[in-house]
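Please check the following for our workbook:

***
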Amino acid sequence: MKLPTLLSILAFSIPLPTAPARAADDVEKPNFIVIFTDNLGYGDIEPFGSTLHRTPHLNRMAEEGRRFTHFCVTAGVCTPSRASLMTGAYAQRVSMHLNERDHHVLRPVSPYGLHPDEVTIAEVLKAQGYATAAIGKWHLGDQPPFLPTRQGFDEYFGVPYSDDMTERVWEQDGSSWPPLPLMENEMVIEAPVDRDYLTKRETERALDFIERNRDQPFFIYLPQAMPGSTSAPFSSPAFKGKSRNGPWGDAIEELDWSAGQILEKLRQTGLDRKTLVIWTSDNGAPIKADRNDLSRGSNRPLSGTGYTTAEGAFRVPAIAWWPGTVPAATTCDELVSTMDLLPTFARLAGGEAPADRRIDGHDVGPLLTGEPGATTPHEAYYYYYLDQLQAVRSGPWKLFLPLDEFARHPHFKAGTKNIPPLLFNVVEDIASENNLAERHPEIVARLTALAEKMRADLGDRGAPGHGIRPIGRVGNPVPVRLAQ
């Protein structure tokens, strides 16, 4: 895909939704908190089957809330997954799926980022009078036009990209990466940041924001930096060496503590019945080649690893908590996506999703509240690896499309050619072990037709579709550095 021409770094116009509020003026607007962990797998917490990590606060959250067992992200890797949550659209639609040359995710000092003309979930809520904060790992561009404070957030505190992107010379283009920075708004306040304390400090900042904004509606986007991208995640001294699964387990148990702190703060301030909290992950765990070695996470009982289009990459643990509104101790088995958060939050806040552009997400309020008979609004769901459409799901059926060239296919070794179609019932066959393509040619044909429709819209393997919007780009990007 041909990249857009240079954008001005000095001025951008960000359109905001102008549709009238649907909610009555006397209806109190709920608060929203999205806790978005990094690389945490489906089987890494107790409410989703872990017997290795202790997550008592998430256990209580699930007992008081609703588990979503078919909650999907739109990419098996960081940047595109986050772009979809922010915009309510597939990463390919907003051109944030990147490519092999740019290493699949945004690197430090990249000229690219989420286009400032995109309307984010924060901008939608700000238009409804919300205070907004982004706290944690951003990874949607480290240049000034792409920072959270230019994308609808009143405040930002965190690291602009992955915790493993530390000081070095990037071998692909010779650019110099700075020490991993901790940023407050648009200033670097520490470099390098002590990664041991990231979860603790992000949590403390979230608690402070809740306290300061307890008398007005607020939105906190908390993309936690852990378990992160390093082979040995970081945790504070109170958790280091305390789990049964080394650094990975230590980091997850501290993330559980963090969630507990936030929920308890909401209870103490009387905001619990006014606040919807979503706890989930940006993609599945990278896991080890030896599936019995859980030191880099678990996607059990799903198949595959993060960074692919396997179920273990796209389906992540998710819990919704809103006492009095989200039914307690319940489970939703319908397909829901991170793209659905923007239109759902917009409606709950009394507004609307942007009407001047394509939004792929849907309002899933009936699924949140457990409305009888509510079903997924997604006729089909699409699994891209970079710009290659690899799979499509409709209902319980997931079809891995026939491919003539390999691109990190989750079911075949590198170099495999002429990959045949694979059809799985991912509801009955949760591990994706039984290929039913030959038994159900009519389902293969139906899902193939859906794939062709999406290829025309979002493109496939170097052939851009008609429905894509440009990525943001600046000229002469510079490293973010601590002011001298």
